[in-house]
Amino acid sequence: MVGIAVLGAGRIGKIHAANVAANPSARLIAVADPYASAAQSLAGSLGADAMTDCEAAIDRNDVDAIIIGTPTDTHIQLMMRAVRQGKAVLCEKPIDLDILKSQAAVDEIEGLKGRVMLAFNRRFDTTFAAMKLAIDAGAIGDVRQVIITSRDPGLAPEEYIRHSGGIFRDMTIHDLDLGRWLLGEEPVELIAMGSRLVDAAMLSKYDDYDTAMVQMKTASGTQCHVNNCRHAVYGYDQRVEVFGSKGMLAQDNQRASSLRISNHEFTDAHGPLLNFFLERYQQAYKSELDAFIDALVKEKAMPVTPRDGLRALQLAEGAVESVRSGRAVPV
Ligand SMILES: NC(=O)c1ccc[n+]([C@@H]2O[C@H](COP(=O)([O-])OP(=O)(O)OC[C@H]3O[C@@H](n4cnc5c(N)ncnc54)[C@H](O)[C@@H]3O)[C@@H](O)[C@H]2O)c1
Questions:
Q1: CATH code 3.40.50.720 for 2-114
Q2: Ligand 1 pocket test: which of 12, 58, 277, 292 has the largest number of ligand atoms within 8 Å of its C-beta?
Q3: Each residue of 209-243: pLDDT tens digit?
């Protein structure tokens, strides 16, 4: 049994804590959050200890591993405290907002042979994982283009946007990781565009955007296109297409049911899309935790490394630079 403390009792912390509590190979020891009521309500519902001091939770003798679901600017400090004690870490994306700090942390983790996994949950979605397997098995020949559409159902609250690090580091980073994983080759050049079409007044206060496009190219010329928007009226839109020399892979958005209705108004109309990431990636978060625990128990390499986290952050930084300069940038 792996003793786990979940740090952060917010949106993502709730998911991780419930998955740990339900996992037969893990024991949820504690939930820590500086807001006592948040820690108590989550820990209480899952039979774990509630703590307000995240560092004290890391230091507990019965804690073997931590899951970091706290605000992004706290990730590295908490992660390094655990790694220096030889404890394992599943860290939410992004690794941090600062590239130099992230670089130093990743170098130290590698030097210490720390067991750290970055929580890029989309790699564990059944459909995207099947895409990767099909690509690696040669089902569509050589990959030529990866096209990723990722649109949120609604703009996050201003308080979240203020601390998010901007759309590229917060939202696009998932797609940048998914894109380089599916391409199977490192991007070397990137061009990005950002617009404020949803709430220009709010986003301009933080020099941020709500609508973005990124294009990446690898050394061999394969391409990836990512498009994001913080607000799609029809719901959480998550689509990926991979085009290759011998075919194409594509998937559909997920819905609560596959029922279709046809009547005098519609033909083949579907019910709404799954609401947001908590619903759409419910299975992926569970599989991500399974993969983390499996790597720990069987002493295997982590399936997503801190260097993957650093690389995705570098691509996000490249996107910010490209939007500012209006030019393609080497990445
Ligand atoms: N992989 C995913 O799909 C996914 C989805 C959402 C969020 N995230 C990431 O998870 C992290 C948390 O996001 P969220 O949406 O759950 O945020 P949230 O605001 O809902 O929750 C964060 C929690 O951290 C607590 N907190 C605040 N300051 C703290 C501090 N200094 N130390 C420790 N805890 C503190 C808050 O009380 C809150 O309960 C972010 O890094 C975000 O990028 C990942």
A1: yes
A2: 12
A3: 999 999 999 999 999 999 999 999 999 999 999 99
